[in-house]
Give the backbone structure.
Amino acid sequence: MSQNDNLAIHEEDAERINGVLLHFLGESGAMEALLIDRSGQLLARGGASRSLDTVSLSALAAGAFSSTAAMARLLGETEFTMLFHQGVKESIHVAAVDEHAILLAIFDSRTTVGMVRLFAKEAGTAVGAILAETRTRPQRTGVLSTPLHKDEVQSSFRERPV
Amino acid sequence: MSIINYAHKEISFKIVYYGTGVAGKTANLQYIYRGLPDVNRGNMVSLATGDDRTLFFDFLPVSAVTVRNFVAKFQLYTVPGQVYYNMTRKLVLRGVDGVVFVADSQWDRLRENVESFRNLEENMKEYGYNLDEIPYVIQYNKRDLPNVAPVEYLEYMLNRKSRRVPYFESVAVEGKGVFDTLNTVSRMVLVAGFGQEQGALNESK
């Protein structure tokens, strides 16, 4: 596969992305923001530190977003740029950031989907610009810059004793 | 696609279990979920139909390896095997770093295996991925059943591309071969992600 598909988020990029996500939360009134790669992997999280299975949430949101994009193509659209799931207490808004990433926001009745949508668009543009910059940088730096030695790739997963 | 997060000291990879319907892809993930200590795995998510056939995907995040102080995380996915679910299969392959092709060893499933493998190649091509380059292994499952084809025959049918890949005999529901498969494919993915040093991994079994 193309190396260009891979992504490395360096510490300074992570800080900038986090800044955008926190700004988004402040402006929109949403509680949590997840930046998710379209392959289903979580790239960054901003907001409340409650216990939330963000790994599963990311995989499912990416799946839902990509399946609605496939539906859009059946209608002749490029994709549906947002997805909204309304719950009784909390709702989820997912917006396209760029061709590689999506931005998921969790919010409740303290704000509205309109507010979330408005500021998600702004945040998406800002994060998209950071990600575009990130992709131009070397991916493996520091300790990751040299290939693995055979001693570093031993078997890893072991069953727990019965 | 691998994602390196320098802030969290993590490297993430995506591995997809592919193959024909009822070959045992979900059984692999279920066994891994049951077999791994809690600390090495997250929640398993299954999007299945009422009769337990995978509708969209199964998902299981696992991690065990630390390489140079970075935690290597692997997100394991399955695809729905039924022919008519090709669109969802394709969606799940997005960003894949490694593949386990799970073949049903029974004689009467040979044709479906071959078709599923071709389907994998086609779907990979649509993303611009190439099975000659991406790490993958083959698992011959259901070896406990009476009507299975010899492994040599299955190898001849499915593992004859220019690059022969590691293969495993398995009985996924009982766990036989499941961890060998996972360990090999995850190592291959890791090595490919870093760029391989000479002799870092011998891919032939």
Q: What stands out?
A: The mean pLDDT of chain A is 91. The first strand of chain A starts at residue 7 and ends at 9.
